[in-house]
Amino acid sequence: MYYKLIIPYKIDKKIFYQYIFSRNMLITINGRIFAGIEFEINNFTFQIYNQDNYFIIESLNEIDFEYFNKISRNILAVFGFFSGFVPLEKGYFFGYKNQNISFSNFIYENNFINTYIGDNLVTTNIYDFYPNEDIVNDTENISQKMKPISNKHFLNLLNNVLSNENFSAVIYSYLNISNKNNNIALNIQCASYAIILEMLTNIISEENKEKLYFIKDKKLRKNLQKFLLEKTKEFFEKNNLENFEDSPIKKRLENINSPTNRDKLLKPFEILNIPLNDNEKTIINSRNDFLHGNNIVEGLDFSEQSKKLFYLSLEFNYLVYALILKYIGYNGIVKNLPKIYLDHYQLPELENEKYYKDLSI
To answer: Average pLDDT of 238-247?
Structure first.
């Protein structure tokens, strides 16, 4: 059987596939160019496209329904992450006997959670990087660094979602928090992004353990630990201090080479060659304030509180998004959401920033 997932939607939203995805992914549907994308995974070919007010995922090969049902949901998540939009109201699964669309039967309908409306940070439309002013003299530089989402990027993200439960939790959590339809309070957004950031950096840190150690030589690390344990034990004995074996000092010395929580958060950005300015480092270090419920906007009036929390939420959004993009191999520029949304407030943190962030290093 061949299957389609068809999702009707009423919102007036046009998806500009040609500005997000690479040319070799774009397809023509019923004479309409750039109407969708096509990709292959696990020897199955899929198409995503719009037809009137219907969003459609279609398998071009015979496929088991259970597998189509599972993978189509993950395809929706990955597509939404890149495009900033995917309708998720009620979807209908249809089965077909052959590719000539000989209708076989209606399978079932499914109520999804909520249509995803977020921000697509990747674009090859140069005007997206100048929302509030005329294009200026660094257009050549920008044009060279604008990169679309390639087939490889799309599949890397989809495969990670399918094969890694922790990574899948990162993506679905990100989509939930960044969905403007969910109307989540700004302080909750910041706290949630801080959790997602920690989840993601843990994944990257675990895969790059050796790069996190200050002393790179494993033998030297062990020698240092052994030396400190022996000397401290001697100190306990010499000064008639009891119970060294069960002391918190011994436990700390046994982990003397372990990276700090701060290193685990910052090092992944260095590993993936993501430049961080001082403001971004400060925001990463502030994640404990949100996790522990500290009020970081205390003393500000309501308007200033909202402004600061919105700024922090957008920065956290970017930090998570940038890590995911670089993790799947993307190198290009992305929208600088804080600058785009808040430039009119003339925040000192954004004074010297451009409307894009450079991940092409």
So the answer is: 89
> 309 to each of 182, 186, 277, 296, 344, how far by Cα in Å?
17, 6, 19, 9, 16
Partner residues linked to 9 by β-bridges: none
Q: H helices of the chain, where?
A: 17-20, 65-83, 139-145, 151-163, 165-178, 186-207, 209-212, 218-238, 248-254, 261-271, 278-285, 287-291, 302-327, 337-342
**49 and 113 fall within a common domain:** yes
Angle value at C-alpha 119, between 151 and 163, nearest 5 degrees? 45
Tokens of 79: 């597509």
Same domain, 132 and 59: no
Give pLDDT tens digits for 16-57: 999 999 999 999 998 889 999 999 999 999 999 998 889 999
CA pair distance 135, 99, nearest whole angstrom: 46
Give backbone dihedrals phi and psi of 45, rounded to 5 degrees, phi first.
-100, 135
Please give the residue range of the domain that contains residue 108: 2-117
| Domain match, 203 and 137 both | yes
Contact 196, 170 (CB under 8 A): yes
- In single-letter form, the type of residue at position 132 comes to N
Q: Say what the pTM is.
A: 0.91
pLDDT tens by residue, 172-227:
999 999 999 999 999 999 999 999 999 999 999 999 988 888 888 889 999 999 99
